[in-house]
Each structure stands twice: as structure tokens, then as C-alpha cells.
Specification:
The structure holds 2 protein chains of 2 kinds. Chain A is mainly β. Chain A has no helices and 11 strands. Chain A has strands at 5-7, 10-13, 19-24, 31-38, 42-50, 53-56, 65-71, 74-79, 88-95, 104-105, 109-113. By secondary structure, chain B is an all-beta fold. In chain B, strands 2, 5, 6, 10, 11 and 12 form a 6-stranded mixed beta sheet that branches. Classes of the chains: A mainly beta, B mainly beta. Chain A binds chain B through residues 4, 31, 33, 42-43, 45, 48, 50, 55-56, 91, 93, 95, 97-108, and chain B through 32, 34, 36, 41-46, 49, 51, 90, 94, 96-105.
């Protein structure tokens, strides 16, 4: 398996524009996580899905953020409208099960909002 | 509430020297504990994990960690550091349902 695949790797956008980040989890993994990494706040869990269903979105910072998982092999994180403070690295991770199982991370999308 | 503290933001060690990165956690039940490593521009890679049993856990790249319940600690160690170990290291606790709560990370620099 190729691992968790995220696209794009880098995104530069202007304030106010819509941004969509994409993730393809590892096949067979039931859990998918979206994390955000910033210098100030470190790694934060934004939302996670189990079997394509959002389980906990308490980490989503604002209504400008939304995430979907239309099928087991694809998820999106959308920011609309984007703001400079959304600049961060966004990671997608997947896991075969909950509990103490390992999460496998993608290489991340570096988002810059100017 | 669950939390993870990594007291050292940045550590510098000489190549060949031993390494210990500290991690303290707060969790009500028996924790699932993890150490991940992140190289620049890369995602996180699992080094090792503790679920139960032997409190000394061996991982990849020569790393090990020891779970000490009495101290709420899960420190990462390596007897001899290589230049390629320079990276950022994250301790995490499983918070149920597959969620991970991460510490702030420790950046490791290796002097030649």
C-alpha cells in the first residue's frame, strides 16, 4: 500500500478563497483523522471519522471549516472563506481500528493563506 | 482531561552520545502511549507504542521507551545518537476512539 496520500502538498491561496484539502486513507482502515500543526498550538485533532461517519468534530475551530468522507477511500477538509490564521500544515491519518492502534500519517499539506 | 507534556522544547546532543526525551501524561485509565518522529517536511512516523505488559518497549531505529505508571512518564531513550536522528519527536496518548493527544514536541539537534 502507498500509505496515506494527501493532496496538494503545498497550497498558497488568498484570504477569502475556498481551500479544499484531500486525503486518501490506507485501504481497509476504518478510522480517518484530520490534524492541524502550527508552531503555536502544536498538533491538534480537528475531526475524525469511523466508517465514513464523523464521530467527533469538537476540534474544528470554526464554521468555516468542514470535512466530509463520502466513501471509505476519500476525505476532504474544506475552509471557506480562508484566513491568514489558517496557515498551517494539515495532516490526514488513518487507523485500522480505534483504541490503542497506531495511526498512519500522510505527508501533510502546507497551507499558506496570504 | 487527558494531556501530554514534553518539558524540553529543544535538545542538542553530540553524535554517539546517549539520549533521553521526557514525556509526562495525564490520563485517568491505563494509557495507550506512543512516540512519533517527524523529519522536516514529512509526516509522522511511529517509533514505538505501549499498550500493556512489559513496561520497557523497543522500537525502530534503536529507540526504546519505559512506561512508569508511578511517575506518569513514558521517556524515550537511545544509547547512541546518529546524525540522522535529528528531527522532532512527539509523545502521544490514546484518548479513546483512536484519537491521539500529542505533546508539543521536542526538537532534537545532533552535533557532529
Amino acid at each position: 500500500d502507498a500509505g496515506v496520500i494527501q493532496s496538494p502538498r503545498h497550497e498558497v491561496t488568498e484570504m477569502g478563497q475556498e481551500v479544499t484539502l484531500r486525503c486518501k486513507p490506507i485501504s481497509g482502515h476504518d478510522y480517518l483523522f484530520w490534524y492541524r500543526q502550527t508552531m503555536m498550538r502544536g498538533l491538534e485533532l480537528l475531526i475524525y471519522f469511523n466508517n465514513n461517519v464523523p464521530i467527533d468534530d469538537s476540534g474544528m475551530p470554526e464554521d468555516r471549516f468542514s470535512a466530509k468522507m463520502p466513501n471509505a477511500s476519500f476525505s476532504t477538509l474544506k475552509i471557506q472563506p480562508s484566513e491568514p490564521r489558517d496557515s498551517a500544515v494539515y495532516f490526514c491519518a488513518s487507523s485500522p481500528a480505534g483504541g490503542g492502534t497506531e495511526a498512519f500519517f500522510g505527508q501533510g499539506t502546507r497551507l499558506t493563506v496570504v | 482531561a487527558q494531556s501530554v507534556t514534553q518539558p524540553d522544547i529543544h535538545i542538542t546532543v553530540s553524535e554517539g552520545a546517549s539520549l533521553e526525551l521526557r514525556c509526562n501524561y495525564s490520563y485517568g485509565a491505563t494509557p495507550y502511549l506512543f512516540w512519533y518522529v517527524q523529519s522536516p517536511g514529512q509526516g509522522l512516523q511511529l517509533l514505538l507504542k505501549y499498550f500493556s505488559g512489559d513496561t520497557l518497549v523497543q522500537g525502530i531505529k534503536g529507540f526504546e521507551a519505559e512506561f512508569k505508571r508511578s511517575q506518569s512518564s513514558f521517556n524515550l531513550r537511545k544509547p547512541s545518537v546518529h546524525w540522522s536522528d535529528a528531527a522532532e519527536y512527539f509523545c502521544a496518548v490514546g484518548a479513546g476512539g483512536g484519537k491521539l493527544i500529542f505533546g508539543q514536541g521536542t526538537e532534537l539537534s545532533v552535533k557532529p
